[in-house]
Amino acid sequence: MSIIYCKKGGYSLIELMIVVVVLGIIAGLAIPSYMKIQARTKGCEAKGMLKAALVLEKAYLNQHGRYSSSLDEIGFVQVPLVTDHPPGKARYLIAIPVATEDVLRVTATAVVDFDGDGKYSVWTIDQSGNIRESFFGSGTI
pTM, whole model, 2 decimals? Predict the structure, then answer.
């Protein structure tokens, strides 16, 4: 009479726990990088809206000899914000803080903190089409 030993395949609890811990470490390292990349890509929305506002401002300048400080006057329609109820699609609030005969500054201010670092992105375009990004502190708008 012979005894047959059958070894069942599978993983022990320790091996499974090690895999879970390693995956957790990898996720912990990857998620912050992903959030920063995601925040950068959302900046494209701001740039597009600023360029559209600049085109409208240039048309207004040609007709009236000065830049306008009103989004309604130039025909810019602010898309409802993601913070509105019901929520819209825009992540940036457009404003015209400076508009004179020869100087223009249009801003796009983030209404949410995309990467969770406590800083809100503010994109600015001037009359020459120069775009730059800055940040302001923590809290909500």
Answer: 0.72
